[in-house]
């Protein structure tokens, strides 16, 4: 994909002197430029706002086919249409503004995250930004304003919103009930929800496109096309298209009609990629950013009624991989996976076969990183199957865990409705966490703790990961702990990995943390090294915490070794 770059410095310069640039009242849906200022005033329904003169203005009441896209700085006036004209692939987000009337068509988009301007005012002091979008309802002009931005352009978006005033032609909102969704405490997921976890168990074709299609378009394709799954961009600061159709009502209607949903987070990108915003190149920071992205994605999913047990797919676009970039991406996805599991969701990732997919599959057995639940790979070879070719071995993600985007940026028409899409083939199973498994190595960042009495060694070739920890036995408590995040309190098989050696301990105590207390299982670490050794099946508590420990308190002889553990739901 090509990258579109907008100079933030130029935008900031263009916004200077906004207050002075606003002139007298102008006609509805009209623009007036202040000579020499680089700024012009746009007015709609009496809501007047100053924007850089270089911005486009699109009147959606006359251009009904326009795609509301945020890769080109634009002011959109009026309600977005069904968005079927949106390209399947756009290069990212810069900044944009949508100003539309508050009526029955927009009421579903007024939520608890929408700021409300006081009566007689057009602005809100320091409105919150959620998922790089600011929503303001202005009852005194009967308009809903949406400002999409990136971390780099947020300041410009706030300057533009702060410039807003009310013209003499502004009319007060006549139906205050249209703001009721913002003010009442209602959990929409209790009445509006997907028909089970998404995408659930499904084998067949699907498509994704930049903006969630309208209800009429979905109905036409439901009866005419071979597709039964649709990708939807629910969150992320890199989304290029507005999502006027994507509401809890839309989710309920589609899943009730038999559609499977593929929820997508399009946010932080690889530090060596061309798309923004980028994750940190520091693995520890990247892991934290992945966890934050997962929390945001779950909030978006729950607001749409997409329940726990669903998979959410993190879209990391193609990048020219390097060792440091790979480490950042894998750490980011580990944080993403850990947090999603803690919140009861499955983790997925979309990427190009030659970059993100190759990196993830190359680290399939690397216990420093958490393994994804689903893998969605882009390989435009035209084959509607889940064979990833050279990018990922068949044995990896083989348990109904694959999605293949096999063609991109194509145009199709079904029952007279044309859309620009990417084609996908899915083989996914289950909704929930029955296939949950997590591996934690002593080198897994933030998930292993041991005192300074535990040494580090890479002596044995039977080790898991780059090294392992060891300590002499003592008659005192000095436990090395493995931390994990489990999706629910349930039965799990606990297995351990260690290198075997005649000098290692013949009665190593492993401690398994259960709701009833710690259970001890002793293992002879002189035997069965370099493989997974089962400790048994235990009831483990859901959530984050220490799950398995290796104790030094033993009458056995030889070094006690702590290498890796694996927890699998059964």
- Indicate the low-confidence ranges by residue numbers: 1-31, 183-190
Average pLDDT, all residues: 88
Beta content: 25-35%
Q: Count all strands and give the number.
A: 30
Number of helices: 9
Tell me the helix content.
10-25%
Cα(first) to Cα(last) distance is 42 Å
Report on the architecture of this protein.
The protein has nine helices and 30 strands. Helices cover about 15% and strands about 30% of the residues. The longest helix has 21 residues. It is elongated and about 90 Å long. A hairpin with a 2-residue loop joins strand 25 and strand 26. Strands 11-12-13-14-15-16-17-18 form an eight-stranded mixed β-barrel, surrounded by five helices.
Summarize the model shown.
The protein has 570 residues and is an alpha/beta fold. It is built from nine helices and 30 strands.
Task: Tell me the layout of helices and strands.
Elements: H1 8-15, H2 18-21, E1 30-34, E2 39-44, E3 47-52, E4 56-59, E5 74-77, E6 96-101, E7 115-116, E8 133-138, E9 143-148, H3 154-162, E10 165-166, H4 180-183, E11 202-208, H5 215-224, E12 229-235, H6 248-256, E13 260-265, H7 283-303, E14 311-315, H8 323-342, E15 346-352, H9 353-362, E16 374-378, E17 401-414, E18 417-428, E19 437-441, E20 448-449, E21 455-457, E22 468-471, E23 480-486, E24 490-497, E25 508-514, E26 517-523, E27 533-540, E28 543-550, E29 560-562, E30 564-569
Parallel strand pairs: 4-5, 5-6, 7-8, 11-12, 12-13, 13-14, 14-15, 15-16, 16-17
Antiparallel strand pairs: 1-2, 2-3, 3-10, 6-9, 8-9, 11-18, 17-18, 19-30, 20-23, 21-22, 22-29, 23-28, 24-27, 24-30, 25-26, 25-28
Helix pairs in contact: 1-3, 7-8
